[in-house]
Amino acid sequence: MKTFDHLAVIGLREWIALPDLGLAGLRAKIDTGASTSTLHASDIEPFERDGQPWVRFTAHLGSLVQRRHCHREAPLVSMKTIRSSTGHTQHRYVICTNMVLGDRHWPVEFTLTCRKTMRYRALLGAKALVEGQLVVNPALTYVQGKPLLAAPATSSGVR
Predict the structure, then answer these.
(1) Quick check: is 154 in a domain?
(2) C-alpha closest to that of 68 among 35, 38, 110, 23
(3) Is residue 147 part of a domain?
(4) Has residue 62 got a pLDDT over 50?
(5) CB contact at 8 A, 158 and 110
(6) Is 10:124 a contact under the CB 8 Å cutoff?
(7) Percent of the chain with pLDDT over 90
């Protein structure tokens, strides 16, 4: 059996933080079958800032029982058509923001969509796992612990 010392082991569910958006304590479900990561958002509205495309949205945190939300803005990376396992397609806005999982910190693309009927407010897809050099042990959960929110980023322009 091959082992890779540079890969970090994560469980099927992990705590993440999105410091550029000022979000910490997000429970994320790991989904190796999804290519792109997803963040629960509503009131999604594109706009322009200094001639560049941006998007404002309400980010939803917490569980179905303990709900919290906050308004955020981020540069718009692209639009993406997502096809569900049932064949349903949806057009989504894509943002890129730094993510912290355990002791790792790297930029991750998230599509924005309503996940209000889902247990987890964030879903981590295969691209984020590859870029973060992570390997999943589905028998484990919350292996990496809860990341602390870093000082708010100012260089990205996210408000």
Answers:
(1) no
(2) 23
(3) no
(4) yes
(5) no
(6) no
(7) 62
Neighbouring CB atoms inside 10 A of 119's CB total: 10
In terms of residue numbers, what domain contains 75?
8-136
Is 155 within a domain?
Answer: no
CA distance readout (Å), 151 to 12, 21, 64, 154, 155: 28, 11, 28, 9, 12
Which residue has better confidence, 147 or 85? 147
- Element housing 25 (H / E): strand 23-30
Specify the CATH number for the domain of residue 48: 2.40.70.10
- Number of domains the chain is built from: 1
Token pair 């939300």 is at which residue? Answer: 69
Closest listed residue to residue 31, CA positions, set 111, 106, 90, 102: 111
Note whether residue 146 is domain-resident: no
- Of 121, 100, 113, 126, which is closest to residue 31 (Cα–Cα)? 126
